[in-house]
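hiii, so i know i said id send this last week but things got crazy w the move. better late than never?? heres the sequnce for the chain we talked about at the cafe, plus the structure i predicted for it. fair warning i was half asleep when i ran it
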Amino acid sequence: MFMRIKTGISGLDSMTEGGFIAGSVNLVSGPPGSGKSLFGIHYISEGASRGEAGIYITLEEGAESISAAALRYGMDMEREGIYLVDFGDIREDDAVSFLSLREYLEGMLRNRSISRVVIDSISSISVQYGDTNALRRELFSFCRFLRKSGLTSLLISESGGAVGGEVKVENFVTDSLIFLGYESHRGEYRRTVLIQKMRLTKHDPYRHPFLITASGVEIYPDETLF
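okay and structure toks below
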């Protein structure tokens, strides 16, 4: 039996035997507007509610924007003691790489007991690698570092809107892949979630709808979409 880490995302844990495996690297991918950052906010806030220190690293949106989004759905990241870091602002004109991100996390972990991390998003780093092989090596090394550090990680990446998403390097090197869809159906847009893979887990293999309500994400695992 593996220790499971609750995600705080309504409906998701029942689809994954209770949550993420402790120490795993998990990927949430989807198009703009599909709710990826909100998944990350839920996850890091759930840890804080359980006394598990967490760090949310944003590489695209500013820290104020992430904090405001959390407050909109009843989660106060500052009050909860979550480390919210605008890494792009820290690096300023320096190129952000998986190596520089690792070095920063190593410093944060040195004197802090952090168990959860969200990185939003790795797409802004990946585009800087012109060589796919180099990207694969760097990302594989970074994911190995996250596991060895004992972090249960949630990485966020951008993808197209098609069901199942695009085949990218990060799809292969992470322990799980959750794809969020945002698609038109009979004239209406709907949000969907599909767990494409989750190692060592008997996960739900179907596509399900979810809504963003006043309290955040609500997945409906009893409703299956075809």
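btw The first strand starts at residue 4 and ends at 5. thought thatd interest u
miss u guys!!
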